[in-house]
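Page 47, continued from p. 46.
Same chain as before, 227 aa.
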Amino acid sequence: MDKQLAKRVFLCCCGFLLVIAMMASVLPSAELIKVSSEKKKVMYLTFDDGPSQNTQEILDILDRFHVKATFFVTAESPDHINMIKEEVKRGHAIGVHTYAHDYKTIYTSVDGYFKDVEKMNDIIEKQTGKRTKILRFPGGVSNTVSRKYASKIMSKLAKKVEEHGYHYYDWNASNGDGNCYTSVDSLINTGLKEVRNQDTVMMLMHDGGANKATVEALPTLLNSYIQ
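Result:
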């Protein structure tokens, strides 16, 4: 994680230190977080594919546990796009996850990808007053599905996003909710298992329209992470 992105107030705890990743362009006056020499585990909690009808409940749960997160947003649910403004109001960070989240649309060409990204960033700016400089590729930077649409497109995009002033972030742990049919118990078990042997975790969860189980699993996971 780039040190310049480890900005914002954080939650100290005996287990994981849940923090929010935020670009200086979003919070120009934010100070760099200084973590004490005492060894702690760190988690960057992130949500993809929202906002949706599930986002409000997730925000309320995060408030209850005093936890901040980064939301990589799309425009898949136009009726809930105003939740982006609410996410920022509650102290969370916003990143681009693309407008369409359609692999064929975004991974056919470099120009097509950036056209989609900037379209989403226009919405973010309209909702929050600021553009973001952080993003996450649908499927991650190493996804193989994109090969169906353009050869070596991900290696090209990984370089180009930096040239365009963006920073991209993948993940090294997930609760498994990329499969929206996964049960609440399975999400909890996976979410706990994947962080056991890691001191720094970039946790992937989803707040898309089909991720109701994530809402139900989140309190148990957060309670375990901060103990």
